Amino acid sequence: MPWKLSEQQPITQEGLPRRTRRGQPKGPRDKTRTQAALKKQKLGELGYRWYEDYLSSPHWASIRRRFLASSCCAPGCSSTRRLQLHHVSYARLGAEEAGDVRTLCEPCHRLLHRLAGSLDPAVALRNADELRVLRGGSCMVAVCRLMLSQPQREFYGREVASETDVPKAHITGIYKSLKQLEQLGYATLRFTPSPITGPTCRSYRLTSEGLEIARKVVALAA
Asked: Which of 97, 93, 156, 111 is nearest to 5 (CA)?
């Protein structure tokens, strides 16, 4: 079953997208607010004050047993640990059907909510490679932020490790992030002379696609 980030954009009775006060179509943040209002309304109808209370109820436990899959359904992720049910829509909260929920691992679930809150869900995630980079953590964020500061520059591996603000204990994560970007085609790798490490060393430079995904990584971390 395809991974659905959010329900379709609300429309008016005339079949046109709803407009904001400034005359622009509703964006992802407006949709998030609409879903939050709907969730609050449904919780009140069910007699719950907080969403957490509903998630602790016997009814939700039965929904989990019925619909929770054996692995995460996010593209490129097949994790079987810390699985959760994500609400695609709150329209049938309390009477969920199969199409209302998706099984996600905790990291993908957290990432999905961050994507829906800060980037356009329709284009926020295009493939499994992007998911791997976006889940890269603080080391990936530090690498992307540094390389975006000078997008035309080639960075030596040790330069990246020394110029980022991550603790020394996480330096290995910096090198893993660089290697991941290179393996996925978001950065080019060259062996060039360097006065820092000797006659030759690895240097990295973001590709055009790499610049785009790096901006997403930094935006999500903001």
From this structure: 111
pLDDT digits (tens, 9 = 90+) for 35-76: 788 888 888 888 888 989 998 999 899 999 999 999 988 877
What pLDDT score was predicted for residue 195? 63
Which of 141, 185, 135, 178 minimizes the C-alpha distance to 159? 178
Which residue ranges make up each domain of the chain? 28-107, 130-221
Closest residue by Cα to residue 132 from 192, 75, 69, 88? 75
- Distance separating alpha carbons of residues 19 and 142, to the nearest angstrom: 38
CATH top-level class of 130-221? mainly alpha
Decide: 200 and 191 in contact? Cβ < 8 Å.
yes
* DSSP character at residue 198: E
- 16: which DSSP letter? -
- CB within 8 Å of 75: residues ≥ 6 apart: 3, 125, 127, 128, 131
pTM as predicted: 0.59
Gap between the Cα atoms of 28 and 107, Å rounded: 20
Question: Both tokens of residue 191?
Answer: 């062996």
Model confidence pLDDT, tens digit, residues 140-181 = 989 999 999 988 888 888 888 888 877 777 788 888 999 999
Distance CA 214, CA 3 (A): 23
